[in-house]
Design brief:
Layout (H helix, E strand, L loop, with lengths): L4 E4 L2 E2 L8 E6 L8 H4 E5 L12 E4 L11 E3 L12 E5 L4 E6 L6 E4 L22 H9 L9 E5 L8 H13 L4 E5 L8 H8 L6 E6 L5 H8 L4 H14 L3 E7 L8 H11 L5 E5 L6 H4 L1 H4 L7 H13 L4 E4 L23 E2 L16 E2 L22
Parallel strand pairs: 3-4, 4-5, 5-6, 9-10, 10-11, 11-12, 12-13, 13-14, 14-15
Antiparallel strand pairs: 1-8, 2-6, 3-7, 7-8, 16-17
The protein binds iron/sulfur cluster.
Length: 391
Amino acid sequence: MLVKLSARGLRPVGPLSAEPFVVRVVDDATPSASSAEHDALLLRGPDSSVPPGFRAYLFGRATSDVGARDAYVFGAEHGYVGPGDVVRINPRQRSLTALYRATSPFNTFLVTERCDNYCTMCSQPPKPHDDSWLVDDLERAIPLIPTDAAEIGISGGEPALLGDRLVALLRLMRDHLPTTAVHVLSNGRRFSDPAFARAVADVRHPDLMFGIPLYADLPELHDYVVQAKGAFDETVRGILNLKRARVRVEVRFVIHKDTFEGLPDFARFLARNLTFVDHVALMGLELIGFARSNVESLWVDPIDYQRELVDAVTTLDRAGMRVSIFNHQLCTLDSSLWPFARKSVSDWKNLYFDECAGCAQREACGGFFASSTLRRSRGVHRLTSDVSDRS
Ligand code: SF4
């Protein structure tokens, strides 16, 4: 679910900086007080008159040497770049990475690729190297992001491995983006330390939520899914510590072959022991990362777990808990579940298949991950406006 888009292919048309830099993309050719430091001027045409005063120049069309430092022509792979975006330019690698896209409602910061879990279906397989430069970039990017940004996610790897740097990042977002909701995806284990949970709470971010996966009511099954012994205990203690410190928590459950049978018992476990969490997200499998390599052992057709899903949603709903179904197409869900289904697939990796042409529910349906070309439900079919039209 990361928004990070990175592509090589920038063609320099002037002298280059040596080091990577982070800039806000603007299309107003009048430089502001901070343009010399922070702004890249976007020039759609091959106009060779380049106004002075900007940190960098981005041309959407071919142009000859314009003389200005850090002037680049970008190709079709960068066509999404627009005003308000915040990007990282690496002159040596000729690459541009979008850190924030102004037109997307799905912006997520990747803060580290390190993780202390090793989930069988991980979409972003962990890497152990030092990647603290990711946070360095974000610390530069956050003050450049428009203050009307609705929501930003923080993801990894495991963000909580950043320790105090995560707390500092949340503080920076509170100060520069005070009305932006922040959603952190974490395995929750580091919050088994009550002092760390309190440090996050003490930021007093006005709109912060942690999304924490729990895959079973049985410790041994959760520990198997995340490939880490003792993880269940730490994660549950982490959830309790965060809630005790009044930090909002969403519990996430990814449905696949190893987890779907336990879904009804898991829902009863939540309804009895963790009724106070703020949201429960029941999620379809995205076939990328380890989920892609383990597809044969993990894939189960959503049509084949409708009984368990209806049971779980009914339990949670009756317990008064907020519950949502993510990453499922409406035609694969029992119609009683439609009120709980959310359009959750990020816009930049979202697609629809031939069956969707003329479907009466297309506007309401979240469609597919791009990775669904690998495997998709046999239940996908065009719907009429009649809700009862399910085969
Ligand atoms: S046919 Fe396509 S648009 Fe219609 S409900 Fe199914 S997946 Fe969604």
